[in-house]
Amino acid sequence: MARYALLSVSDKTGLIELAQSLVDRFGFELISSGGTSTVLEAAGIPTIKVADYTGFPEILAGRVKTLHPRIHGGILARRDRPEDQRDLGEHNVYPIDLVVVNLYPFQATIAQPNVSLAEAIEQIDIGGPTLIRAAAKNFAHVTVLSSPTQYADYLAELRQRETPSAEFRHECAQAAFWHTAAYDQAIAAYLSQSPTTTPTPEALPAVFNLTGRRQQLLRYGENPHQQAAWYYTGSMATGWAAANLVQGKELSFNNLLDLEAARSIIREFCGDRVQPTAVVVKHTNPCGVAEGKTIADAYQRALAADSVSAFGGIVALNQAIDPETATVLSKTFLECVVAPDCHPDALKILKAKPKLRLLLLPDLTQGPDVAIRAIAGGFLVQDIHHVPSVAEDWEVVTETKPTPDQLEELIFAWKVVKHVKSNAIVVSRDRATLGIGAGQMNRVGSVQIALSDAEDKAKGAVLASDGFFPFADSVQTAAIAGISCIIQPGGSLRDNDSIQAANEAGIVMICTNRRYFRH
Fold this sequence. Notes:
This protein has 19 helices and 21 strands. By secondary structure, it is α/β, with parallel strands linked by helices.
């Protein structure tokens, strides 16, 4: 008795190889629709067109193809129910043992610029999810393959036994329901933005669903007694899940947290006409950030900012690793290094440090659009605005005005302080951090830590604060250390006290009218 498989795929990766094996080696009859049947016929693989099998043509420009009782009856029929088998016989319905379906590329479509609502709507698959759900529901008797990555495992199952194992069918059904859930979530999120043809991303949706695919189980979480796993969102691996781990053991929970912190900082220094820049991160806080004439120079300057904290740290570079940079990187114990690329000769040098995790991520600017944090009974969601530092929007509030070089330095310090845990203070000079005060319960403490780290180098340097100064004391402390310029959001009821203290000390003060708290 022939076995039947239904094939209807948008992503045709591996389709020909799968279909050929099903027909030639395992004796399947293939039923296919639309573009899938065209591809199979062009490859010389026999197939029964859905329209010929159902006796009903595709209609509505292809909107209706597989929504028919002869299709879904064959998928949903229970092989151990005589009444189901009787229905199949009476209506001449073939039992379908395999359903191979993946969906219209809705997410890829809406990711393109200037896509209209009408264009997006046409990429909402109807028949595909229905087929997947039907086959997944009947996994006791039917196998559903919703991704080309499953094809090889399915064929391996058939080589071992006539029918794939119950465990394999169960796993495929689970993957199928996750697949359709993520697909529906993407559609709902898109439509919730706006009912017009120009959706806007300002409002967060009324219902926020979070779906992830497990990339790997982690050895443990932040601490050894905590279980942890790494998930990626979407239908395909992106971001860190798509990064190339060139060498080193698997990434840990803390590695990933620190890598993302480093990536979020280095993205501030990516783009056209940017200087070579290096970031050194420890416990999600930067301990050194610097620009340089070369990427090796930038790293050495960032390392010099706090070489003690850099031990066991994470490094992010905005340019490819060359042999000179690889040589200086290998002189310090580092957990991870991430860069857009690595020259072959540099890789040979780094291989002498086999425990160093080296990751290549060509696009360091692509990050999440929202931040999610768990609280009792739910979670909080906020959007992430990647707002560039635009000096034209700032207000010089003191009598003394910044020189062009001082303004560039203030821009540099502001880019860094945005990524330091509150209360946050950054002292910098010559496009390199000198001292960073992070995570203190009061701003005075952060100022003191940053200035203490900077020591006598603070004279003539600039100071950036993620929040306003509620009192003049921090400005006065900065003046004593020799700080020449201060950048801060402003907005305190006592702004005038800080401005007056700056004027008395001859310090430049700029208010950005935007704060960057990081709790």
